[in-house]
Design brief:
Two copies of one chain form a homodimer. With about 240 residues, chain A is of the alpha+beta class. Helices cover about 45% and strands about 20% of the residues of chain A. The longest helix of chain A has 27 residues. Chain A is globular. The interface between A and B is large, with 52 and 52 residues. Chain B binds a DNA duplex (30 and 30 nucleotides) through helix 8.
DNA sequence: CGGGTGGTTGAGCTTTCTCAAATAGAGTGG
DNA sequence: CCACTCTATTTGAGAAAGCTCAACCACCCG
């Protein structure tokens, strides 16, 4: 059940079998969540963190006018709110973009886990720092990349992250994001996302139909995205 | 020397005198850094974290075309690269925007400190999560706020963060950011920042001259920024 | 077959950008 | 104290990217 999570951790560091065992014992039973359900509300007092088993979650914030900005997408193996362990409440919501399976880990368990295994503490600290690195890359996207590059970059990131947890096949992956979802990730309007996706298709960089993205030209997509995966810290080393 | 740092920590949690002592013993001698100097280069192997004593630092990333995006500003009391403790290298640069004084803390010391004081571990973990929360707010700014709101928001954030470390006086603070620096924070061009600042001045929300910002109408500035300080976690509680 | 959601298109508009030049200010050497 | 230089700010005019609004289409599912 937490295999994707272990894959993600082991992509960046060694996890001993003792640590693995301790993690497994900390994770609660899986529960299902329908699409569009808000799992975490801004401001709520939190005592658990949420591990995504299956499906896609997002973190989002919005302005008074209702304009929404997604700040991160979550794929299986991610904690959606590990940061709530120290923040205690969050300043953003967490919502299911598809039907999901999630499992809760009580902060109490995380406290024991991190005190008993200082190395795991650093692994999980690393994990929240990785989220922050993705935030910075998105900041760069929104601040400086044109529409085409923003969307291309989002697809590159998703591809690499899904590959780590074995959710890609032949340069393609399931992607239940609507064009409106994408627009909320990249800070554009749905209409402009639509036209930009057409451009990506027309230049034969991707296909995107029936909820599946196929990357036709990875080098080309990377180029228009100026995608450099260094920010995903894809190297196994002792943290 | 690390008073600002302790103020920042104690704004969000209690720090015992024993912990304070341990922190003090971990911090190296202060060194000065000239403006525009790059302290940390993307990709470099890091074994220290950098505590800002005085001046202003920024984290930035850039695209091939040279377009630069600042992802965070640092004020006295901040660690500029505490996240390097677990990341080991960074995917962005850290640069001095003004002449600065900084002090280094070896990762070895941080390891001892966090293993000896699990509470301090969580305090510093919190601190990197706070950086991430600021990143998310900037993502919202760049994705959804218009130029006026973005700049207003930046000034609100700076004001609150500087107030915590006693660097404001009568609704004003020293601000050595050039309009180009600001444009690199908010994802606009310097020209547009210039016109937008004029608008903020004309509406009597701020003054900004001779490197000093004065907030004339805090409520009004907050309103156009849609500034809600919840993302700065300004509450003291046990982490 | 009907309703709903999500994708597509067109036309006109707004915000922000680009480029180029002028102005102001701070610091330096004579 | 005065030129001189360098950097930062300001202004103008035209262009481009992305937005708005409104309608239409396609597919899915019951």
């Amino acid at each position: 059940m937490i295999d994707a999570h272990l894959k993600k951790l082991r992509k960046r560091d060694d996890i001993s079998s003792e640590e693995e065992q301790a993690i497994r014992e900390s994770v609660g039973a899986a529960q299902t969540v329908p699409a569009d359900h808000i799992l975490i509300r801004r401001g709520a007092e939190l005592t658990n963190s949420t591990l995504l088993i299956d499906g896609m979650l997002c973190r989002f914030k919005d302005l008074r006018g209702g304009q929404r900005q997604i700040t991160e997408l979550h794929v299986p193996g991610d904690f959606a709110d590990l940061h709530s362990f120290t923040l205690k409440r969050l300043e953003h919501d967490v919502m299911a973009l598809t039907p999901c399976r999630v499992a809760l880990v009580p902060h109490e368990r995380l406290k024991e886990l991190t005190e008993r295994f200082p190395h795991l503490m650093r692994v999980y600290w690393f994990s929240t720092n990785l989220d922050a690195a993705m935030h910075r890359e998105w900041t760069l996207s929104l601040g400086r990349r044109p529409a085409l590059g923003r969307i291309a970059h989002l697809l590159c990131e998703l591809y690499v992250r899904l590959e780590i947890v074995d959710l890609t096949r032949d340069w393609s992956f399931d992607c239940h994001l609507t064009q409106t979802d994408i627009s909320e990730c990249v800070g554009l309007t749905p209409v402009h996302v639509n036209r930009t996706l057409q451009e990506l298709r027309k230049s034969r960089l991707i296909e995107f139909e029936r909820r599946r993205v196929t990357i036709l030209d990875w080098k080309g997509l990377q180029r228009v995205a100026e995608f450099n995966p260094e920010y995903l810290y894809l190297e196994r080393r002792s943290r």
